[in-house]
């Protein structure tokens, strides 16, 4: 009898084993800005993060074979949608990840929905991706404009910055960030005095900053990102805007921007992020591995989001098995709770919004920074439940009333 | 245009005309077979650009006018076609016609200003007008700025044929392309076309023969802009997006490049040039910013080594007209 039971157990184990050993082929496309103003916040660093995720996952699941491809969308929505169309139609790509630049991300999201594939946003910020323009094939991982406004914007108003002037990148992302921040400012009793919009990838900010200066607003909100933020902060320091008494609110500042600006220029900036490389030992260890491919650089939250997003996606694929369509995988990803070493435990909401904590940081003075990459003081932790826009307020058609 | 409807002069039907007919039949056959082997979206992109380059070639190859602002008609046509399909709910055929009309109107305005000057001044005026309209596209509300007009519906052709599938869309694009190509062929082989060539070769002489060359040039300009408009409108429907790339001055440069590589003043040259350039952009895009460098090298090689362009050299070797 004993013999029989052990035989049965062995058979069961073998059955399980063979089910697990089922070969699973996955193809992931990392589309990013590889050469222009967002190349440092996403770009090749995102590809490096994706490689780490694939290596970590396939170590535990040797039956999963993941192929990675990458492309440069050049910040042009038509180039981006062309690449994604080709990937989905003729190269069997199952999922596209990253895509900084909200204009390109919105185009990608529509293609993913049309072809019923999957799109995980890490690089783009526009909260519309999980708002009016959400769809069942898109998951927004790392951060969004609402969360940035709710972090940096709110903190600035509460510390006395009650009149605002916006310097806004003139496309989907800038508009969304300006809109979301204006709402927060006005809700907390502040006032928006004016705004000026600049083209994407601008080198000369002088005329825009002069308008901001003459507005006499206490806070100049920078609703831009990457190279544009770096250039506008540099120009502002040349114009003596901060020493003249106006405060700069970098509404979206990445650690790579701080590195590029140098602490001398960036010191005192408040900013909101969902992940910081120096926050704990796990992040530091991961950063060390990431730096194997990107020596001398520091990963941003976008890179962390690419890593975590791919891991969770692969988990869902293994749980489902076979070759399911994008909607099914997205539904599975929403069903199983997220858990990874970089973002900890979290969930993905019905509208595709990934929920986790956000952190309000302040950039250190040069004298306080002890080693390269020692950028931030942690000012506050915004708990996951408050960090993102409430589900009902997004007007996402996926959310039933 | 009354002149253009006259019958084609007899010599056009000689051996020269026959090589064009044969080449046209080969091209048609290749276009019918191609989608079974090549990704249709790529083919459609190449065809839209081929039509754009043919339209451009009508002006530079047959009238000798170098317009450096052809992106204006192409890009704005794609914006208006996209807007018509998305916001006004036009069916695809009307949206593309809206694009053609946009090209025609813009061509009439820009053309009547530009043809008063020649050579570099002509090129600079067309470029300046195109740049003006580029900044308008950047700032206007309905164009969506950097985002462009996204999510343009392909819709149903004549309310019947669903264009959502790439194959049906491809069939429509081929029909549009071939129809426009035949129109261009007809134009350049007509007496009107002969006058255009006369203007290209020696304008004072054409004037002395009693031709009002300005009128001929303007008609050719408007025709070229209209056909560029058809190409732009079709592209917007195919790719379901209209964006700044199409009105940017680099697009005006690209169409010059396509025409030069293929063969200036040959009917089939621009088509070959468009396929070469678009194929490079598509299949070499893993090389990222190197693509533009390679394009530049090809341009230089083309100008230095085979100035007649791909098709021009073939035609020269075989002693036929293509």
Describe the protein in words.
The complex is a heterodimer of chains A (401) and B (322). Helix content of chain A is 43%, strand content 20%. Chain A has 401 residues and is of the alpha/beta class. Chain A has 2 domains: 197 residues, Rossmann fold (3-Layer(aba) Sandwich), CATH 3.40.50.2300; 158 residues, Response regulator (Rossmann fold). In chain A, the strands form 4 sheets. A 5-stranded parallel sheet of chain A has the order 2-1-3-4-5, sandwiched between helices. A 4-stranded parallel sheet of chain A has the order 7-6-8-9, sandwiched between helices. In chain A, strand 6, helix 6 and strand 7 form a beta-alpha-beta unit. In chain A, helix 8 runs parallel beside helix 9 and helix 12 crosses helix 13. The longest helix of chain A has 20 residues. Chain A is globular. By secondary structure, chain B is mainly α. Chain B has a domain of 209 residues. Chain B is built from 13 helices and 4 strands. The N terminus of chain B is likely disordered. At the A-B interface, helix 3 and helix 4 of A face helix 2 of B.
N→C terminal distance of chain A: 58 Å
Number of E strands of chain A: 15
The average pLDDT of chain B is: 89
Look at the structure and give the mean pLDDT of chain A. Answer: 91
Could you spell the SSE succession of chain A in H and E letters?
A: HEHEHEHEEHEHEHEHEHHEHHHEEEEEH
Order of helices and strands of chain B: HHHHHEEEHHHHEHHHH
Instruction: Specify the CATH architecture of the largest domain in chain A.
Output: 3-Layer(aba) Sandwich
Report the CATH superfamily of the largest domain in chain A.
Answer: Response regulator
What is the share of helical residues of chain B?
A: 55-70%
* Derived structural class of chain B: mainly alpha
Low-pLDDT sequence parts of chain B: 1-13
Taking the sheet with the most strands of chain A, its summary is: 5 strands, parallel
Low-confidence blocks of residues of chain A: 14-19
Oligomer: heterodimer
User: How many domain regions of chain A?
Assistant: 2
> How would you characterize the largest beta sheet of chain B?
2 strands, antiparallel
How many separate helices of chain A? Answer: 14
The radius of gyration over CA of chain B amounts to 19 Å
Beta-strand portion of chain B reads under 5%
Helix content of chain A: 40-55%
């Amino acid at each position: 009898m004993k013999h029989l039971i052990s035989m049965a157990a062995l058979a069961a184990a073998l059955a399980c084993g063979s089910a697990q050993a089922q070969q699973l082929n996955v193809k992931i496309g990392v589309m990013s800005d590889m050469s222009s103003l967002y190349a440092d916040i996403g770009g090749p660093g995102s590809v490096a993060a994706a490689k780490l995720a694939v290596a970590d996952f396939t170590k535990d699941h040797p039956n999963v074979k993941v192929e990675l491809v990458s492309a440069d969308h050049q910040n042009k929505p038509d180039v981006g949608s062309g690449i994604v169309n080709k990937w989905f139609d003729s190269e069997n790509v199952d999922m596209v990840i990253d895509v900084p630049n909200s204009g390109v991300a919105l185009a990608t999201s529509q293609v993913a929905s049309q072809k019923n594939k999957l799109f995980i946003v890490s690089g783009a910020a526009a909260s519309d991706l999980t708002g009016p323009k959400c769809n069942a094939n898109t998951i927004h991982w790392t951060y969004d404009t609402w969360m940035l406004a709710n972090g940096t914007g709110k903190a600035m108003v509460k510390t006395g910055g009650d009149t605002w002037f916006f310097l806004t990148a003139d496309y989907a992302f800038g508009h969304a960030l300006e809109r979301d921040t204006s709402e927060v400012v006005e809700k907390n009793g502040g006032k928006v005095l004016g705004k000026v919009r600049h083209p994407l990838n601008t080198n000369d900010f002088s005329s825009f900053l002069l308008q901001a200066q003459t507005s006499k607003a206490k806070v100049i909100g920078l609703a831009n990102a990457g190279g544009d933020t770096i250039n506008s902060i540099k120009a502002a320091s040349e114009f003596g805007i901060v020493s003249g008494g106006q405060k700069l609110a970098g509404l979206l500042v990445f650690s790579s921007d701080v590195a590029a600006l140098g602490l001398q220029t960036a010191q005192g900036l408040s900013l909101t992020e969902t992940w910081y490389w120096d926050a704990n030992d796990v992040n530091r260890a991961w950063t060390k591995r990431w730096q194997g491919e990107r020596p001398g650089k520091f990963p941003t939250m976008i890179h962390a989001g690419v890593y975590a997003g791919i891991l969770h996606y692969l988990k869902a694929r293994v749980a489902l098995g076979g070759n399911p369509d994008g909607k099914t995988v997205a539904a599975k990803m929403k069903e199983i709770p997220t858990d990874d070493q970089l973002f900890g435990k979290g969930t993905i909401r019905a509208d595709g919004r990934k929920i986790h904590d956000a952190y309000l940081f302040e950039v250190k003075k040069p004298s306080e920074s002890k080693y390269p990459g020692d950028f931030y003081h942690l000012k506050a932790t915004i708990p996951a439940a408050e960090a993102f826009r409430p589900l009902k307020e997004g007007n996402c058609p996926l959310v039933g009333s | 245009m009354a002149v253009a409807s006259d019958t084609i002069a007899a010599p056009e039907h000689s051996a020269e005309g026959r090589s064009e007919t044969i080449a046209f039949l080969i091209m048609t056959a290749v276009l019918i077979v191609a989608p079974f082997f090549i990704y249709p979206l790529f083919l459609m992109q190449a065809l839209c650009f081929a039509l754009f380059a043919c339209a451009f070639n009508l002006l530079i190859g047959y009238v000798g006018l170098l317009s450096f602002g052809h992106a204006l008609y192409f890009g704005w046509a794609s914006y208006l076609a996209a807007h018509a399909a998305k916001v006004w709910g036009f069916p695809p055929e009307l949206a593309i016609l809206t694009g053609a009309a946009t090209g025609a109107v813009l061509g009439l305005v820009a053309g009547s200003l530009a043809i008063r000057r020649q050579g570099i001044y002509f090129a600079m005026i067309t470029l300046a007008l195109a740049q003006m309209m580029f900044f308008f596209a950047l700032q206007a509300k309905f164009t969506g700025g950097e985002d462009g007009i996204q999510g343009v519906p392909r819709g149903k052709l004549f309310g019947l044929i669903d264009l959502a599938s790439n194959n049906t869309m491809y069939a429509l694009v081929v029909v549009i392309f071939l129809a426009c190509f035949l129109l261009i062929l007809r134009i350049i082989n007509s007496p009107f076309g002969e006058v255009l060539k006369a203007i290209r070769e020696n304008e004072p002489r054409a004037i002395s023969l009693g031709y009002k060359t300005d009128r001929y040039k303007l008609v050719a300009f408007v025709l070229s802009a209209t056909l560029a408009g058809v190409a732009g409108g079709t592209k917007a429907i195919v790719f379901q997006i209209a964006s700044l790339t199409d009105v940017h001055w680099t697009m005006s440069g690209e169409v010059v490049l396509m025409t030069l590589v293929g063969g200036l003043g040959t009917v089939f040259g621009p088509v070959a040039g468009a396929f070469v350039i678009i194929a490079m952009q598509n299949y070499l895009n893993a090389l990222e910013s190197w693509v533009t460098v390679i394009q530049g090298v090809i341009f230089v090689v083309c100008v230095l080594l085979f100035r007649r362009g791909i098709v021009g050299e073939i035609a020269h070797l075989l002693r036929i007209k293509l």
